Structure formats: C-alpha cells, structure tokens
Rhamnogalacturonase A/B/Epimerase-like pectate lyase domain-containing protein
Amino acid sequence: MMAGPQRPSGKSTRVRDATAVSDTTAARGRRALLAGGAALAATGLLAGCDGGRPAPAPTDRPSYAPSAPAVRGRQPAGEGTVNVVTDFGARGDGRTDDSEAFSRAYRYAASRVWDHVGRTVLDIPPGSYVIRRPAALLDGDQPDRKANGLRFRGAGKRMTEIVFAPATSKDAYLCRNDDMWANLMFEQLRFRSATPGASFFHSYSTGQAQDYRFTECEWTGEWTYGLALDGSNTNSEMRWEACRVGGAYRRAFLYSGLSERARDPQRQDQFLNYWFTDMKVEYEWGNFLEFPYGGSITCRGGSYIVTGRRPTDTEEYGRTSTFFRFPRTRHFDAVQRFHAEDIRFEVRDPDVLVIDCAWGSGTVHFNDCDDTANAFKDFSDGVRPHRYRIGPRGPLVRYDSCQLTGRHQYTVADPIPSGRSVARYDMCLFRNHPVNSFAVLSGAAEAGQVRFVDCLGR
C-alpha cells in the first residue's frame, strides 16, 4: 500500500521561510542601492568618471603586444543589468504612472558612464507601462558629458509596451538626446502614443548623437514625429531591423532638419546612413520618411502600406500620405542618396504616393520593387505615385526590374542640356500604360530625358 502525501515538517517550513525573508531582504537592499545610485546621479556625483572603485592597475605587456588605450577615473559601482520593475518599482499594469521609475532607471544608467562609455542594460519585463512625463525614458540633457552605449531591452514588441500619455502633445517627446549619447539600442519594445500628436524621439547633434539601433520594435497610436533629427552634423548611422511602423504621423516617422538651430542653416546636411531592413511599414496616414535636408537612406525588404487617409486637409500635405517625401530646402549638397530594394508597396488610393522627390542633386534607385497590388482598380490608370522635380544636377533616377502602376511624373525646373538622360527604366513592367506614355513630362522637360530599356507596357 502506497503512502499518501505527507505534510512538511515544521523544521523545513522554517528553513523555507528564512530563505524567503533572506531573498526579500536582498532584493530590498539591491533596490535601495540602485535607488541611492540614481539619487547621487541626479546631483552629478556619479556622472562621468567619478565615484566607484579604482580601476585595476595595468599589467606588464610584451614589447610586441599592442597597448590598450588608457582608462581614466574609477570603475562605476552597481549592477550592469537592472530591471525597471524589481529594481526601480515600475508596475506595468497599464494604469499606474511609471514615469518616476523609468526616470530613476535612466539616471542610474547615466551615473554609470565611465570614461565616456555607458555600462548599463535596462530590462523591461512584459507589461504595459504608462509614462506621462516627457523624456522620462531617456533624457540626455547634458551635452558636455559624452556617453557611448545604452541599451533598453524588452520581452517582445507585443509583450512589453510603453504607453506615452503626456498631459499635452505640444513639444512632448518620450526620448530626448541633446548631443550626449551615441550607440543607443532599443530591442523588442512596443511604443504607443496615448496622447494624439505626441512625439517619440527628439535627437539634436553637432557630432555626438549617432548609431541608434531598433530591433523588433513597433510604433502605434497617433504621433507628430517618430524620430525628429536636428542639428548641424551627424545624427547618423541609424538602423531599424524587423520593426513595424504602425499608427499615424502628422508629420513623419523619421524627419531630418527639424529646425534651423545650426549657426549656419546650410550646414543642416549631415543626415546620412539610415538603414531599414525587413520592415512592416503599415500605418494609417502621414509620411514615413521626410528628408528636406537630404540624406543617405537604404530600405531593403518588407511590405509598405498606407491603410487610411488623413482625417483633414493640411496646408503642407493636403490629404496626401507619402512613404518617401524629399522636398528641397536650402543646404549644401553633401549627401542626397536613396535606395529601395525588394519592397512590396500598396497604392490604395490616389492620395498615396510612393515617392515625392525635389532634391537638387544626388541619386534615387528602385530595384526589384512592386507597387501593382491595386493596379486592377479603376483609379489606378490616373495615379502618379512617383513624382520628381529635376534640375541640371539631378537627382538621377533609375528603376531596375520593377513592376509599376499608374504613371510617373517628371517636372524639369531648369533646362537640362539636350540629349542628357535624367531617368532610366531597365526591364520594368508597366501595368496600366504603354511604354511611350508612361512618363508624364512637364516644365522644361524634353523627350528622351527619360529612357526605357527592354521594358513592357500594357
């Protein structure tokens, strides 16, 4: 006969209770230590190269071994990986204002910068975290304290959600970086605007703010800007991988040259190297990329869809939503380059544009792209989803192995030397018009400035 389950003895129960008390005490002690570090950071005592334990003394090296760069100051104290819930008291219940918890977590990370290198990973467990205070997630407001490296790590873009709900949307940004941080990483996070017209990120740079990376992140809700870039140099080397851009944008998800804070407005031209890979760009209305100050941009793979229409007419955009809007603003012609490859676009109505480009120079290249998903609809014959304003210096436009709907429009502002081509289509398939009427030319345009090589029309 088998014996039934037995009650644990009083001794083992006491052992477990003591362990639980010990664990709780340790957690409280760690949280107090982290909170104390954040408090010191707020006073500036731990920022930069102060505080912590001395760095180890250098060891002797063979004469042939390369010498490591000198590391000055003191190694920061505290944990390198922290949790906004267990260490800083965030609730993540979708109701509680977690602004203070995230602000303390950021101040703690800023306090651990040593020799200008950040050494903290902020873990954000599954949950819905409400942040009402602007810049609570990231507040890089000390441009004289250069820092390199900060990582925000969620549990999954549908598992860890940050809800930005400021009292007013005017000039409200969830993140700010004023020429302080480089090498920022955001992973597996979902960002939602609960205050229509709020913005996600303001980045100002005269040389420091660069190397941002977003991996498996998602944006929903109504924003004014996703990322607004400003300044006179860099704001560069930014990468988005397997992200979803949803929601709606009163201006654009990524916008270059927000103001003219540069001493010389013509220097707002160093917006370069933005990579978008395997994206789901499926938002309701607005612009995806808007680069009036030029830029070097590469988009590879994914699906790009505008699912709705702007709710009202606007002075600048009307009802139009544009994936790639590149107007021309006064600046040096440092970089104007755009490349799109292996992307499927949907043009669901005449107010959706794939590209509207008026750059004064540079190149635009589409390779193996398809925007013909709705070419069978009645409005498709009349749409012009690709529009260019061309000058004597370009931009030069090229399409390779693309399937294209509607017609493309070219407006030539100033005369171009006779016989020079400004646009070329190679082995493309036109779904709604024959080759000889696919390009619509206006202004000073002449026949032959748009060339077709081995293309097929309707």
Residues 3 and 9 are 16 Å apart (CA to CA). The two ends are 85 Å apart (CA to CA). Residues 243-458 form one domain. Confidence is low (pLDDT under 50) at residues 1-26, 40-66.
